[in-house]
Amino acid sequence: MLNWTFNRSGMTADASAPGGPSHALAAPPPEPAKPAKSKIALALGGGAARGWAHIGVLKALDEEGIEVGMIAGTSIGALVGGCYLAGKLDELETFARSLTMRRIAGLLDFAIGGGGLFGGLRLTRRMQEHLQDMLIENLDRPFVAVATEVNSGHEVWLGEGSLITAIRASYALPGIFEPIKCNNRTLVDGALVNPVPVSVCRAYEQQLVVAVNLNYDLYGRSAVIKHRADNQPVDHQQRPGQDQTSRLGMTSVMVQAFNIIQDRISRARLAGDPPDLALHPKLNDIGMSEFHRAGEAIDRGYLETKARLSELQRLQEVLVR
Which among 28, 101, 129, 197 would be 20 to 30 A from 159, CA to CA? Predict the structure, then answer.
């Protein structure tokens, strides 16, 4: 018969009892360790106001405990990605959700005689309140902001130096914001050359690359249309009864042109260097300048990520085997 005793370490058998065992009961085997999961690299694309969706993407990933090992960002993708790695995503979300059309106008400072309509100094001061003099190399994970050099057309990867300067250069939309002078280079929006910077993540030898393409559903696949060129009236003035919506203003034409450029370049580059997973939040009804619709964009980025989590988790498991 066994005499059982209890102590703080559990229940043991008394070895001195007649017929008792000569040692304590063996501890239960440890639970098998959970399989490791691969970190992901994020390629956050450009898209102006639609870029608030990146906040929702990052929030969904954090909720699921999916670790981000690197971020490459273009334009507003650089802004959101840089703030995330700096630990300021909550502050950025609060700022974005507080925007109204009136507040947006108050953040824009006209640049008379400059290289863009706005100087961007007021926005810079807002960033300095939170990011201060933070350096990219002091972030705990790699970060690269993509910009374009105006004079040569070269793609420029900003992976060191001032975080604010890198972000500003990456979102300096030509004609809208003044170009950024950086080490004898004149830099503008990176979306001109690499709207969704998957190639940057690949160059950093990241194992699992997830791209967030904000412009996927704007136009669809390109097509060639045969069309008849009828005579154009010499008088271009508005005629009574003519459809007002057929006349686009200068700003609308510029925005549409930039959208087309981003879409076509994105499709070409992603076809040659595809990500392991591409997220496509449904944002085609949000205009490039509608920054006051941040809540909608954030929610759509969040929902798209949640809907694709099972695919992402399968990829993580496969890549660590």
Answer: 129
